[in-house]
Amino acid sequence: MSTVVKTTIGEAKHHFGETVTIGCWLHGKRSSGKIQFLQVRDGTGFMQAVAVKNEVSETVWEAASRLTQESSLYITGVIREDTRSKIGYEMTVENVEIIQISTDYPITPKEHGVDFLMDHRHLWIRSPRQRAILVIRAQIIRAVQQFFDERGFHLVDPPILTPSSCEGTTNLFHTKYFDEDAFLTQSGQLYMEAAAMALGRVYSFGPTFRAEKSKTRRHLIEFWMIEPEMAFVDHEENLQVQEQFVAHIVQSVLENCKKELETLERDTSKLEQVKAPFPRISYDDAVKFLNDNGFEFEWGEDFGAPHETAIAQSYDKPVFITKYPTSLKAFYMKPDPERPDVVLCADLIAPEGYGEIIGGSQRIDDPALMEQRFQEHELSKEAYQWYLDLRKYGSVPHSGFGLGLERTVAWICGLDHVRETIPFPRLLYRLYP
To answer: CA–CA separation, 24 vs 180, rounded Å?
Structure first.
């Protein structure tokens, strides 16, 4: 007596002509009276299962008839090739074993408002579009780890609770650490600098928090950052790593997530052009470009979303904007030796209006200049003494950058808002579910 193979929708293509069992949920159903077409999903994909009335028992037919949206079941049948199907195969049903009948599932095929969907985010992520986004997010994470692992980087986990700000800003979530004040981290970078002095090339990958009261389509309160730091690497080498990194991520998604990109109706022709090297424009030239194209913009101002979008539209790849004014950037960025009013930094601007996805720089390695910056920014030496020690004991040229995962997901998926890029987004007025 042969045992029926238990498999998944994603693996069913390896079982043509075989009888298999799949644990799944009913996504949708239609019937012609004598045939029931069951659209089922199991997390690995979606598949059609066809139940023919005169080919199954009355018990199986009745069980299939009882199924409602998001009911859970084990379905058994023969996997058959079907060229009309998006996945190339379907199941001819032999048996249906109901696990639970779902009643009054709140998300129906009709249109729902954003607030309703966000209130039901725990269920919304079951939909084909949201599943596709989360699959692509997972592939991006795999590509990130692969890129750094293959290049000799070590993964280092910085603390989430910190005694001070990374960039001297006030947009921090405050908490009590027993009898001390503490903050949720806004970046792991300073700790990565310490790790780079021990391990050479490192990266962190974890959640960060910004208490900015922002409601734009590019901002989340809680988001994930990838932050590499590299000893003995200068500004130019840093840019090369960044462009190779982003190109690797995009090509990995194109190669491994074709079905998901199709589900999102993403124009992949634009992503296919994302290969290193990337174009570069200095802050000075960017200001001139904006003034020449109808923007009133003065040197020393920071770029907003309309400015970044206008600059990006001139290129078919991500573009680096380099060497910003020193006054605009964080205290730790190294001034250009030939021009101290700008720093050796760059922001990487994604195409199609998605804005900055990477910020990076060469770091100050001169102890005296770092002490000066501390005074200028009124930073607490007590809180940062460990950071000053990095310049005191074996200081070296070093560089790093931070890539925001959710903005990168939004760009690659072609989404209108970052709230769909993370399973459970934390927004200005949303802490549920």
So the answer is: 50
121 has pLDDT over 80: yes
Q: Where residue 141 falls among pLDDT bands split at 50, 70, 90?
A: very high
**Is the dihedral angle over the CA atoms 349, 353, 354, 355 positive or is it negative?**
positive
Q: What value does the mean pLDDT take over residues 310-326?
A: 97
pLDDT digits (tens, 9 = 90+) for 227-268: 999 999 999 999 999 999 999 999 999 999 999 999 999 999
One-character DSSP codes across 329-357: S-TTBPEETTEEEEESEEEEEETTTTEEE
Size of the chain in residues: 433
Query: Is 121-420 the same fold as 5-100?
Result: no
For 286, the token pair is: 């960017």
> Residue 166: what are its φ and ψ, rounded to 5°?
-80, -40
Task: Strand 355-362: give its sheet, edge to edge.
Answer: 154-155, 201-209, 222-231, 398-404, 355-362, 345-350, 319-322, 280-282
Number of H helices, E strands in the chain: 13, 19
Paired with 335 in beta bridges are: 343
Please give the CATH number for the structural domain made up of 121-420: 3.30.930.10
User: Which of 361, 389, 363, 384 lies closest to 374 in space, CA to CA?
Assistant: 384
Quick one: pLDDT at residue 163?
A: 87
387-405: average pLDDT:
98
Helix ranges (H only) for 44-111 are 58-66
Q: Give the model confidence (pLDDT) of 19-72 as tens digits.
A: 999 999 999 999 998 999 999 999 999 999 999 999 999 999 999 999 999 999
Mean confidence (pLDDT) of the chain: 96
Is residue 76 within 8 A of residue 38, CB to CB? The reply is no
Which residues pair with residue 180 across a beta bridge?
177
**Do 105 and 33 contact (CB within 8 A), yes or no?**
no
pLDDT for residue 134: 98
Name residue 348's beta-bridge partners. Answer: 320, 358
Q: CA 13 to CA 305: how far, in whole Å?
A: 45
The CATH architecture to which 5-100 belongs is: Beta Barrel (2.40)
User: Does residue 299 sit in helix, strand or coil?
Assistant: coil
Residue with tokens 């910020």: 359
DSSP letter, residue 421: S
Mean pLDDT of 6-25: 98
The three-point CA angle 193-196-198 to 5° equals 120
d(CA 317, CA 271): 8
